[in-house]
Specification:
Layout (H helix, E strand, L loop, with lengths): L9 H20 L19 E8 L6 H21 L1 E3 L2 E11 L4 H13 L5 E4 L3 H13 L4 E3 L16 E3 L4 H14 L5 E5 L3 H16 L4 E6 L8 H9 L4 E5 L4 H11 L6 E3 L13 H5 L3 E5 L12 H17 L8 H16 L4 H8 L3 E3 L4 E3 L13 E7 L2 E4 L2
Parallel strand pairs: 1-3, 1-4, 4-5, 5-6, 7-8, 7-9, 9-10, 10-11
Antiparallel strand pairs: 2-3, 11-14, 12-13, 14-15
Protein name: ABC transporter substrate-binding protein
Keywords: Signal
Pfam families: Peripla_BP_6
Length: about 400
């Protein structure tokens, strides 16, 4: 399989990450004090705490992703609060105010408003579905509160002029699509169909795959949209199979991805399948899905492959420790991207650097963070609020019911 070409701008970003990642990770976990900051911070809402408002899909269509993120969040919170976060002249603990948005955008917006106005949240995180995240974006902007989204969909942080308080941890659709298109081309596939989720995430995928396929001189093929959650996917799958593709890209989020793959197999597709990062969750390879997905490829952050015993970088050790504690508590670790853990650490790093929990200062320090987390590496900048670095992505294949890294 051909190795994907590296973007000319990549070395600079990788250099930034290499220089800064270890420093920021160590600083976030260090025991040393910080220089004295504004004493008025201690009298703000939350007292001597850094208060984070969390809105997650703990029930409803997005629960396959939301529940995993809450698990990750709780594990990392324990580690962070073991020493506290040095912020100004105080060592603060982090308090989470968690709300179930039930996968409902309207409820997610109400959650966000209450978390800020009633609970005094200094920053928001959450939203694993694009629609719930989009609803939180409006509240965060209006109330000028930093918000770190865990959802897929480039529109969450664009246009930037209207998303000044908003950050996204998931990979950009263009980066995922580029890797998928190069893989498909290297395998000699000629007719590519895209089966995409309904909504903002699917829209990003359709646009990105169309551009990426043209870049490798493959014509964009049939595009079929999945019906909304709760409806049968079989008719959409039959439309894809009728186009006689020799490769199908399924662009969606769990649990819809597993259902879409099953429908494609039922409709008669026997060729290869390719998934975007949003389709990878514990649910994806559960039960009947495992056999249907055998041999399928996915582009996903590096955490899907775990940490090797010989990798002793600070980030790898943190990742290994996270996986160990996750398995202790929940029995297994499927390699989903624990964005919530990274969101928690990024906000804590911003508060430490700002020596304050002031929302405006948190926003300012968030947009200049370059660090490596558990899911992957991030490089925020004033002109880039989507932080997952493209070099944090790998290509994986389902082999005997598990994910194996191939590139």
């Amino acid at each position: 399989m051909a190795t994907p070409a590296i973007d000319p701008a990549t070395p600079n970003r990788r250099g930034m990450l290499a220089a800064a990642a270890g420093v920021l990770l160590l600083a976030a976990c260090g025991r040393t004090g910080a220089e004295e900051g504004p004493t008025s911070d201690a009298t703000r809402t939350g007292g001597q705490e850094l208060v984070l408002g969390v809105s997650l899909e703990l029930t409803g269509a997005g629960a396959a992703l939301g529940v995993l993120q809450e698990r990750a969040l709780r594990i990392s919170l324990e580690s962070l609060n073991a020493d506290g976060v040095p912020i100004g002249n105080l060592r603060r603990t982090v308090r989470l105010e968690v709300r179930d948005n039930a996968s409902d955008p309207d409820l997610a917006a109400r959650n966000a408003t209450e978390l800020i106005q009633r609970d005094g949240a200094h920053a928001l995180l959450g939203g694993t579905l694009t629609e719930t995240s989009a609803a939180i974006v409006g509240v965060a902007q209006q109330l000028r509160t930093p918000y770190v989204s865990l959802a897929y969909g480039d529109g969450i942080v664009l246009p930037l002029a209207q998303r000044t308080y908003v950050y996204k941890l998931t990979p950009d659709a263009s980066d995922v699509a580029r890797r998928l298109a190069r893989l498909i081309a290297s395998q000699g596939r000629k007719r590519v169909a895209v089966l995409a989720a309904d909504g903002l995430h699917g829209n990003s995928g359709v646009r990105a795959m169309s551009a990426a396929l043209r870049a490798v001189e493959l014509p964009p093929g049939e595009v079929v949209r999945l019906p909304r959650a709760g409806e049968s996917f079989l008719r959409a799958a039959q439309r894809v199979v009728a186009a006689e593709p020799d490769a199908v890209v399924v662009w969606g989020t769990a649990p819809d991805t597993g259902g879409a793959v099953l429908a494609l197999r039922q409709a008669g597709h026997r060729g290869p399948l390719y998934l975007d990062a949003g389709g990878v969750a514990e649910d994806t390879l559960a039960d009947d899905n495992s056999a249907a997905l055998e041999g399928a490829y996915a582009v996903h952050p590096i955490c899907l492959g775990g940490s090797t015993l010989t990798n002793t970088t600070t980030a790898a050790l943190a990742r290994r420790d996270f996986v160990y504690r996750y398995i202790q508590r929940h029995g297994s670790f499927s390699g989903f991207a624990p964005y919530a853990s990274d969101a928690l650490q990024l906000i804590a790093n911003a508060a430490r650097s700002a020596a304050s929990v002031d929302r405006g200062r948190l926003r300012a320090y968030l947009q200049n963070q370059v660090t490596e987390g558990i899911a992957g590496a991030y490089a925020f900048a004033p002109i880039r609020h989507g932080g997952m670095d493209r070099n944090s992505l790998g290509i994986y294949r389902v082999d005997h019911g598990g994910w194996v890294r191939v590139s």
